[in-house]
């Protein structure tokens, strides 16, 4: 892969949240278990595998890992499915565990927990959530990217094991 090269940053940004054919969230009782396995594989296990696989290169680069979690990993969300929420909660816990273990490698591990961000994952029905966002708007991909960039930079050299909420204040409710 990288051979003996250094890696300065790893951003785990995979995420999927399957819905019913009617775009309803899949809960604990109505979600297909194979779909759960796929969600956990993509949203959680991929991040673990990548962190393990790039640990040596990150050590060489005194790098940083940033996991993209979600507000849905911390509270029931009206549109995100249960498997998605649980996978993102597990990714939050993995962030803390990796921060602890990777510290001895000189690698920082943090996460960002976006709320409603204008991406392909967001459907028109999400507009009803805007009144619950104190900043009265959905976030932009640039809002998330700026925080990820900061966490990968030397400006965040003493930050590890932290999850930064990018929710426009939505998480305070």
- Report the CATH topology name: Rossmann fold
Shape: globular
For the largest beta-sheet, the strand count, sense and barrel status come to:
4 strands, parallel
The span between the termini is: 44 Å
Class from secondary-structure proportions: alpha/beta
Quick rundown:
The chain has helices at residues 33-53, 55-61, 82-102, 141-152, and strands spanning 9-12, 64-68, 108-114, 163-166. With 173 residues, it is an alpha/beta fold.
Plain-language structure description:
- The chain has helices at residues 33-53, 55-61, 82-102, 141-152, and strands at 9-12, 64-68, 108-114, 163-166.
- The model has no long low-confidence stretch (mean pLDDT 91).
- The termini are far apart.
- Helix 1 packs parallel to helix 3.
- A 4-stranded parallel beta sheet has the order 1-2-3-4, sandwiched between helices.
- Strand 3, helix 4 (141-152) and strand 4 (163-166) form a beta-alpha-beta unit.
- Helices cover 35% and strands 12% of the residues.
- The protein has one domain (9-172): 3-Layer(aba) Sandwich (Rossmann fold).
- The chain has 4 helices and 4 strands; from the N terminus they run E-H-H-E-H-E-H-E.
- With 173 residues, it is an alpha/beta fold.
Which structural traits does this protein have?
173 residues; alpha/beta; Rossmann fold; 4-stranded parallel β-sheet; 35% helix; 12% strand; globular
